[in-house]
Specification:
This protein is of the alpha+beta class. Helix content is 65%, strand content 12%. It has three helices and two strands; from the N terminus they run αββαα.
Length: 99
């Protein structure tokens, strides 16, 4: 069984946050999501809701996978945590751009 260190707890919390963000996004966000805003404030890039919500979740899950894969060895402890954090930031930005 894996020892629950601070990074592991952080990864588990980020997975939970990404899943909650996915569920809330499905309920609250429009069918087409703005993923990029131009300098004048208009919508630059859009994508379907399923893709726009799945990408941050996949980034978070990929970060968790990297973290748990590298737990036995001591190589690069932070790579997975940082990738999962990028996924959470992306999920937050999706909500900021679309609410």
């Amino acid at each position: 069984m894996h020892k629950l260190n601070i990074r592991t707890i952080l990864i588990l919390l980020m997975i939970a946050a990404a899943v909650v963000g996915l569920v809330l996004g499905i309920m609250l966000l429009p069918d087409t999501l703005v993923t990029q805003i131009t300098l004048d404030g208009s919508a630059g890039n859009t994508m379907p809701k399923a893709v726009g919500l799945a990408l941050p979740l996949l980034l978070t899950l990929a970060g968790a996978w990297i973290h748990f894969r590298n737990m036995k060895g001591q190589e690069s402890k932070n790579k997975g945590v940082l990738l999962a954090l990028v996924g959470i930031v992306a999920m937050i930005l999706v909500f900021v751009f679309n609410l």
